[in-house]
């Protein structure tokens, strides 16, 4: 029973991190109908940036904010330099370009920082909380992760639901030409969508690095788990990304715990296939009013 | 490589035959050199080319050093894998980031059979292709309901999920150590490397013949119809789901065969041989060679084999450290992929075709618009397409319906001509 509780708590903690990256994927998918397979690699780059700053004696929170800023700029740059040039082509093209970006970023990080994994500090203590007399598998840092991701999700929700900017972003993703005719600066908003996703991804990287072996490839698996989470949640909805992250995290934690480590990706694959077969549009998708 | 040129020329000549039919407003086939007169019937033509190519491969491998024989053999096995991926992604429009998983299945199947049974090499490889094909069918079933990024994510997960299984049951699969394979014993006084390279290149040619015939059959037409417009294909009587599964099965069988060959080449089959990078590199090579083009598979395979070589010598010239030089190939590969996707989505083969068509249109003057289009659409059933601008599939094709190439074009791939090309031809129409 304690094992089950530990696996569950561990799953929640992991799931929150997947949710952060899934939120980034959802932001970009909403804005440009592209799944950014380089999202994990971009997060890896920003985290290495933060790591470099920390080595030069910059304070933790300054490095944290700097990584978020780098993520914001990186996201915008990718949209302006690469994705914009693919407008109107087949939907396979952006997938391949982001895969190319993934390869390039991991290559650069490997060449600059080497392949060995290094440590990255956590914002708070990583020893388990003591509840009553038992130590549970959930630390102060995990609480911080939980709060940070929920705040990120809420900010996302408020942006899209309650602000004029969010409305314009949704409109430009949904009907680009029409939005342009109505005076929405579509290009700028798409860039903003990617930039915000870059920021969310950078946050995911900072939250992942302390708990995993921090190397150029440390976000590869997280990216596919985040993709699973985003698809389970429907690729469209921030709440869906959060719930999808939780489901994925729990699934992976149980599979890894009870069936043996190493089988987690297989568990995620099964979850993804079940989710896609049962609810191809995700748990939280509303039926489309009209298929175009 | 020379066999590639031969087949390129021959295909060009075949296209020329079609275009030079009466009514094209152009005298004689002076544009396309006809060094070879090949049978008109596709099957016979493919077989004739294959026989010539196989003989040529034997000649080339007997001239090369053992080390270069190994590289030539690797080109052969990657051609097999890329041909399958080209059918799946380039022709039927389904992206796969998990082709390495099929190769892993094939490699383990062949190695297990070799270690536990005394099966013949041919049967081992056949079983490798067969097992991978079964997995392809299993993966293809859910994939029939998925599109673009969803499918990409699912196959990406497949590439990550399969290798750990071999680590989990390591008593059977050998774990990190892997399974040792024995290369086939060479007949006569051939050295082992050359014999293996010959086998791999011949199998590559055999695969290309089979796939080339397949894509010229009703299956191939169904693939392209599904890629261009699923609804239209369904209305025309194509069974969309079945077509997609068949494409997956073909691609997986090719991947399995290539995996079995890879196991023979490396001498050991372990999970480290099939990282995610392999799947990504296969997709990248397929796109760079020319998606949907079987000749492009050769270009892609050459890139896969020689790019690491070139980049390590480049790193030596730039005097980079050993740590950095290992990553140079990756960086170049990714950067080239991005640039190609933006600037030349047809890949190497697509770009060559564009150049060819451009030269042709300059020489032929007025009235060659049709010829250019015919060359692009009807000349070669094996087409680059999904990657090229496919946003206006059917409209572009409409004006050519009166042209001589129309019947073949209609059977070929609508809208597969890259953007630039269709613009050019409509300009010269006007």
Q: How many alpha or pi helices of chain B?
A: 18
Shape descriptor of chain A: globular
Counted beta strands of chain B: 2
- The number of helical elements of chain A comes to 11
Fraction of residues in helix of chain A: over 70%
What's the β-strand tally of chain A?
2
Shape of chain B: globular
Structure, described:
The complex is a heterodimer of chains A (292) and B (430). Chain A has 292 residues and is mainly alpha-helical. Helices cover 71% and strands 3% of the residues of chain A. Chain A has a domain at 21-218. Chain A has eleven helices and two strands; from the N terminus they run H-H-H-H-E-E-H-H-H-H-H-H-H. Chain A has a two-stranded antiparallel sheet. In chain A, helix 1 (2-32) crosses helix 9 and helix 9 packs parallel to helix 11. Chain B has 430 residues and is mostly helical. Among the domains of chain B are: 64-275, no CATH class; 348-429, no CATH class. Helix content of chain B is 71%, strand content 1%. Chain B has 18 helices and two strands. In chain B, helix 1 crosses helix 16, helix 8 packs antiparallel against helix 11 (240-266) and helix 12 packs parallel to helix 15 (347-364). The two termini of chain B are 40 Å apart. The chains are: A mainly alpha (292), B mainly alpha (430).
């Amino acid at each position: 029973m304690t094992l089950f509780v530990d696996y569950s708590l561990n799953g929640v903690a992991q799931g929150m991190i997947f949710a952060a990256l899934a939120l980034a994927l959802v932001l970009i998918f909403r804005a440009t109908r592209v799944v950014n397979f380089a999202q994990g690699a971009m997060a890896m780059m920003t985290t290495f940036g933060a790591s470099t700053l920390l080595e030069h004696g910059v304070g933790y929170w300054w490095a944290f904010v700097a990584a978020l800023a780098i993520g914001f700029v990186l996201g915008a740059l990718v949209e302006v330099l690469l994705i914009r040039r693919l407008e109107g082509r087949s939907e396979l093209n952006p997938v391949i370009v982001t895969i190319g970006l993934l390869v390039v970023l991991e290559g650069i990080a490997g060449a600059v920082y080497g392949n060995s994994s290094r440590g990255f500090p956590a914002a708070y203590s990583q020893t388990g909380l003591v509840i009553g007399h038992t130590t549970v598998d959930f630390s102060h840092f995990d609480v911080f992760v939980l709060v940070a991701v929920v705040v990120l999700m809420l900010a996302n929700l408020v942006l899209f639901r309650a602000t004029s900017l969010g409305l314009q972003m949704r409109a430009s993703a949904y009907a680009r030409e029409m939005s342009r005719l109505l005076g929405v600066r579509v290009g700028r908003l798409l860039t903003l969508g990617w930039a915000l996703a870059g920021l969310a991804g950078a946050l995911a990287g900072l939250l992942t690095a302390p708990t995993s072996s921090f190397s150029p490839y440390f976000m590869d698996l997280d990216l596919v788990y985040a993709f699973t989470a985003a698809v389970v949640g429907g690729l469209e909805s921030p709440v869906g990304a959060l719930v999808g992250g939780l489901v994925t995290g729990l699934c992976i934690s149980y599979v890894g715990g009870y069936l043996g480590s190493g089988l987690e990706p297989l568990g995620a694959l099964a979850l993804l296939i079940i989710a896609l077969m049962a609810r191809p549009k995700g748990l939280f998708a509303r039926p489309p009013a009209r298929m175009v | 490589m020379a066999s590639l040129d031969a087949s390129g020329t021959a295909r060009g000549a075949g296209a020329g035959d079609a275009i030079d039919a009466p009514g094209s407003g152009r005298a004689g086939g002076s544009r396309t050199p006809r060094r070879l007169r090949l049978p008109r019937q596709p099957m016979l033509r493919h077989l004739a080319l294959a026989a010539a190519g196989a003989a040529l491969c034997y000649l080339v491998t007997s001239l090369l050093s053992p080390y270069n024989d190994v590289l030539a053999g690797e080109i052969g096995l990657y051609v097999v894998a890329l041909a399958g991926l080209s059918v799946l992604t380039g022709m039927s429009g389904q992206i796969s980031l998990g082709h390495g998983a099929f190769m892993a299945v094939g490699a383990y199947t062949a190695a297990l059979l070799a270690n536990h049974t005394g099966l013949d090499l041919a049967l081992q490889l056949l079983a490798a292709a067969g097992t991978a094909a079964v997995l392809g069918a299993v993966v293809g079933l859910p994939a029939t309901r998925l599109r673009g990024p969803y499918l990409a994510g699912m196959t990406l997960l497949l590439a990550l999920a399969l290798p750990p299984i071999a680590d989990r049951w390591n008593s059977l699969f050998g774990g990190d150590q892997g399974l040792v394979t024995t290369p086939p014993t060479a007949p006569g006084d051939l050295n082992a490397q050359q014999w293996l390279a010959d086998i791999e290149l011949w199998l590559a040619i055999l695969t290309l013949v089979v796939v080339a015939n397949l894509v010229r059959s009703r299956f191939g037409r169904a693939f392209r119809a599904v890629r261009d417009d699923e609804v239209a294909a369904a209305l025309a009587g194509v069974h969309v789901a079945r077509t997609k599964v068949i494409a997956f099965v073909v691609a997986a069988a090719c991947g399995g065969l290539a995996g079995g060959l890879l196991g023979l080449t490396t001498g050991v089959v372990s999970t480290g041989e099939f990282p995610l990078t392999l799947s990504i590199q296969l997709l990248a090579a397929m796109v760079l060679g020319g998606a949907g083009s079987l000749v492009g598979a050769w270009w892609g395979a050459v890139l896969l084999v020689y790019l690491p070589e070139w980049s390590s010598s480049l790193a030596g010239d730039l005097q980079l450290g050993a740590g950095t030089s290992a990553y140079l190939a990756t960086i170049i590969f990714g950067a080239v992929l991005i640039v190609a996707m933006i600037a030349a989505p047809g890949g190497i083969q697509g770009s060559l075709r564009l150049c060819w068509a451009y030269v042709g249109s300059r020489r032929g003057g007025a009235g060659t618009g049709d010829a250019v289009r015919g060359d692009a659409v009807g000349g070669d059933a094996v087409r680059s397409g999904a990657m090229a601008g496919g946003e206006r599939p059917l409209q572009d094709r409409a004006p050519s319906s009166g042209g001589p190439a129309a019947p073949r074009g209609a059977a070929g791939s609508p809208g597969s001509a890259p953007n630039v090309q269709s613009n050019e031809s409509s300009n010269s129409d006007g």
